[in-house]
Amino acid sequence: MISLAIYLLTKRWGLIIVGAILALSGLIYGISSHTVTYQTLKQQTIVHYLSGNGDNNGYMQLKGSADLYIVNETDFTPAFNSNAFNNSNGLIDFVYRPDQTTDIDVTSTNSSTHLKGPAHTVEQITVYDSNGQNPHTFSSSEELQNPNGFYQNNWSGGIVLFLLGAALLALVFFWPAIRARRKGQAAPSAIAGQANQYAQPYTNPAQYPGYGQFPQQTPQYSPQQQYPQYTPPAEQYPPNSSYPAPQQPQYPQQPQYPAYPPPAGQYERTQLANPNDYPPQNR
Predict the structure, then answer these.
(1) What are phi and psi of 72, to 5 degrees?
(2) Fewer Cβ close by (within 10 Å): the C or N end of the chain?
């Protein structure tokens, strides 16, 4: 059984089956909530009552009936055990829960009596003396708190089972998409995260001690500051005797033409121009 559970939990389809079973079981268990109504039997005769097996329980069978009943002896007030039947003729009244049973399998240590099967839980038992008089009643804690029955609410446990199953199903169906998205986001970040071993880290001057203690100064430049003009040295080449020295070309002499008077408004450069375009007058 354990190996089967491990095998199912290691397979995707197995997780789907387990999640569906948990969710469905939670719903069924919650829907099984009901009102518990006690059943009462009067003037019944006990034919078998087995106890002392170390489990603090008594197991009872009535005369003429195959039904079995279980008595949680330590849960009764006042305390109850098989000694309560010592002065009794075996006649009892009792109240039990018909909605739930417990499987029992017990055998008497001093006889061949063997009780096996589903047993109802006894909530109250009344024992009479040998004359059928003086009833003595023993009640369980559950019957004392709810003498007229109660509502059995199973939704708390059912919701837990349903949520476990739903969470498992959601994990099975959405986990592949989540993993794919994480891989897609991790790939570019891994490329971008490669550091350049030649790049120098940015240094913030504010991180160094003493920064800001001295005011920052802006360099001043004087417009009158002049620098000596650089004159490249003339290249000197040795004369080459194998080639004749270059000669200036000879041009024919230009004929001389009479000078024309200059047009109005044009004078020698040493003379100021007259804005009225008249020759200056001697003063």
Answers:
(1) -85, 95
(2) C
Neighbours of 143 (CB within 10 A): 22
Can you state the angle between helices 2-9 and 12-31, rounded to 10 degrees? 110
Cβ atoms of 49 and 85 closer than 8 Å: yes
Cis peptide before 78 (omega within 30 of 0): yes
State the Cα torsion 145-151-156-162 to the nearest 10°: 150
Tokens of residue 196, six digits: 């350049």
More confident of the two residues 281 and 192: 281
Tell me, yes or no, whether 10 lies in a domain: yes
**Residues 74, 27: one domain?**
no
- CA–CA gap between residue 61 and residue 122 (Å, rounded): 12
Q: Considering the domain boundaries, does residue 271 fall inside one?
A: no
Q: In terms of domains, do 38 and 135 share one?
A: yes
The sign of the CA dihedral 145, 149, 150, 152 is positive
When pLDDT is averaged across residues 154-178 and rounded to a whole number, the result is: 89
Structural domain containing residue 7: 2-32+157-172
Q: Which two tokens stand for residue 21?
A: 């079973």
Q: Are residues 98 and 122 in the same domain?
A: yes
Residue 116's contacts (CB-CB under 8 Å, 6 or more residues apart) are: 104, 105, 106
pLDDT confidence of residue 36: 87
